[in-house]
Amino acid sequence: VQINDPAVVAEVTLASDVYERALIDNDVEALMGFFWDSAQALRIGVAEELYGSEPINEFRRKRTVSFTDRKTLGRHVVAFGADMAIVTIEFSVVAFGNPRHGRQSQVWVKLGDAGWRVVSAHVSHRVTPQNSAAFSTNANDGAAFAAAASAILRAPIDPAHLGGVAFNVGLMSNIAAPLMEIELPETVEPAARFIP
Amino acid sequence: VSADLVSLSAQEIAAGVRARRFAATQVAEAFLARIEVLNPKINAYTLVTSERALREAARVDAVIAAGEDPGPLAGAPYAVKNLFDLEGEVTVAGSKINRDNPPAAQDATAVTRLANAGAICLGATNMGEYAYDFVTINAHDGATRNPHDLTRSAGGSSGGSGAAVAAGLATFALGTDTNGSVRVPSSFCGVWGLKPTYACLSRAGVFPFVDALDTVGTLARSVSDLTRTFDAMAGPDARDPNCGRVSSPLTDTEIDAGVRGVRVAALEGYFARGRTTELSAALAAVAGVLGSNSTVELPRPDVARSAAFLITAAEAGELHRERLVRRAADFDPASRDRFIAGLLAPAAWYLKAQRFRAWWKGEVARIFETVDVLIAPATPMSAPGLDEQTFEFDGATLPLRANVGLFTQPITLVGLPVVAAPIHQPGRMPTAVQLIGRPGSELTLLRVARELERQGVCSAPLALGS
Lengths: 196, 466
Known about the structure:
The structure holds two protein chains of two kinds.
Chain A: H1 6-24, H2 28-34, E1 42-44, E2 49-51, H3 53-62, E3 71-80, E4 84-95, E5 98-110, E6 116-125, H4 132-135, H5 137-152, H6 159-181
Parallel strand pairs in A: 1-6
Antiparallel strand pairs in A: 1-2, 3-4, 4-5, 5-6
Helix pairs in contact in A: 5-6
Chain B: H1 2-5, H2 10-18, H3 24-42, E1 45-48, H4 50-65, E2 77-81, H5 109-116, E3 120-125, E4 137-138, E5 142-143, E6 145-146, E7 149-153, H6 159-166, E8 172-177, H7 183-189, E9 192-195, E10 215-220, H8 223-233, H9 252-255, E11 264-267, H10 277-289, E12 295-296, H11 301-319, H12 321-327, H13 333-343, H14 347-367, E13 373-377, E14 390-393, E15 396-399, H15 409-413, E16 418-423, E17 431-437, H16 442-454
Parallel strand pairs in B: 2-3, 2-8, 11-12, 11-13
Antiparallel strand pairs in B: 1-3, 4-5, 6-7, 8-10, 9-10, 9-16, 13-17, 14-15, 16-17
C-alpha cells in the first residue's frame, strides 16, 4: 500500500480544512454531511459516546457551542493507499471560560461518489488541575443533577442552556468541596441577620 | 474655564461654587459637554440625565444667590451605576429584561442624600448584567472601555462608574460591591474606591444582587472626595432596615491626622500567590510609606472565597428565578448559565457557607486585635484586553473572568471595609492595593489612604487629558 501519496494527502487535507471551518462556524448541516451515513459510523466525544450517524446528527443539532476561538495547533495526516487516511489534530479552545488543549483523531475513507467521509472520530482534552472540573465525573453528574433539580424545583431549563448550566454546577461542586470538608463546631450558627 | 472645571475634584468644585468663583450650572455644562465628546469612545454612561443635572445645578445656584448653604458637595457632578433608582428613569441594572419595568417613583436613598448635599447627578453608568460580572462586557449595552487604554476592560461590575471617574466624566461615581465590583474597576481604571462596612450605607432603591453581601460604594479621584461622599450618604435609613450601623462624621482634619500608631501588615500566603513584579512593586511602595514590614496570614481565605462564591450563586439564582424560568433567552449569555446553576445550589452548600462566615468573622476579629490595616492586591492582574479570556497565574493558564475577584472575594464574606488605593507606574496599566480594616474603621482606612496620596505613592490622574 502506498503511504502518503501527495495527491491523496492534498485531498484529505482540503476535506479536513473544510470540516474545521464548519466546526468553527457550528454549521450543523455541513457537519452532518461529513460523517459516514451509516449505523457503523462512530464519534467518541469528551462527554459522549455516539454510535451511528443518527445519534451523531442528533448531537450536532442539540449542541450549542462557540468554537469561534478554536485554533489548530498542529495537524498530522497519514494516507494509506488512495482511499483511507488518519487525520490527527491538536487544538486550543476556550469553553465556558475555560482554556482547553484538545486532541482529535479521525479516520477518513473515500466512499465512492460520496467522497471523503469521517467513519470514526475521537475527541479528548488534556486534563490539568485547573480544568479538571470540566471533565471529572462532575461534568456528567452536573448535567444529570441540573436536569433533575430543574424538574424538582419546577424551574425548567432550555435544553440549549443545559450544557453551560451543567458546567457551572460542576464548577460550584468543586468550589464547594473544600468548604464542605471544613469541620466547624456544632455551636457555630449560620450568619443570618434576621432579627424579629 | 470649562476645560479646567472637569479636572477638579468634587471638593474643589464645591469650594469654587460656594465662593462664587464659578456657577454650578457652568460646571454641569462643562461635564455634559465632555460626556458628549468622550462617552462614545468609552461607553461609560448608558443614560445621561442632562435635564436633571441642569435643574439640580440651577437649584444650587439659586440657593447660593439666596445666601443659603447649598451643602458640602455643592455643584459636584457625579454618576450612578445603572442599578440605582433615579426618579422617573427605568432602573435597568445592566439587563434587557428590566427595561420593561416602570420608571422609579423616587431616588435611591444614596442619591437623595447626595442631592441634599448639593451634588449634581449626570446620569447612569454601564455595568455587567445584574452585577454578576468583573469586566463590564455587557451583551445589551456593549463593553465599557478603559480610559487609560481603550482596548482594555474597565473592570466590573461597576465598570462604567470606574471609567467615568478616570476619564473625568464625573468627579465621583456610585457603584456597588458584592464580591469586588467597586475594587476591581478601581484597580483596572486606577481610581480610588471605597467599599464601606457591610450594612453601613442604605441600599434602598438599589437593585439587589446578593442580600448577604451587597454594599454601596464610591469611586473617586481623591481621598477627600471619598470621605465627603461617604459622609453625605452614611446613617440609618427607615427605607432600609438592614442599614443600621452609625458612623460619626468624618472631617478633613481627622483624615489628615496621619498614620502614627496605625498598625499595618501585609497579607501573605493566599494573597501573595501569582504576584507579578508590578504588583510586588506597588505593595512594597505602600508598605514602605507606611513603615510596615510585618506580615500576617488569614486562616483559609480560599474557603472564604468559596463561601462567598456559593452565597452569591444561591442568593442570585433564587432572586432571579422567575426571570430565569420565563425569559432565559433575554439574559446575557455570559451570566445566564451561572445564574441558573446558582438556582439549583443545594441548601447544604449555602448553610455551610453561612456557618463558615460566622466562624471566619471570629477568626478575622482575632487578627485585628494586633493589626489595624491589612494590605493586599485588589486584583491578580491589571486591566486585561477586552477579548482576553485567560491569564497567567502562578505558572498556570486560568480562565480570566472567574478569577478576577480572587483577592476581593474572601474579604467581602465578612463585610470588612476596604479602600482600594490606585497606583500608576510609568508605562504600565494602573493597579490598586486593598487597605482592609475591621468593621466600622473607615476613618482609619481613609487616614492611611490620605497619607499614601500625600506621599505621592497613590494617585488617580485623569485619563484622556483635560
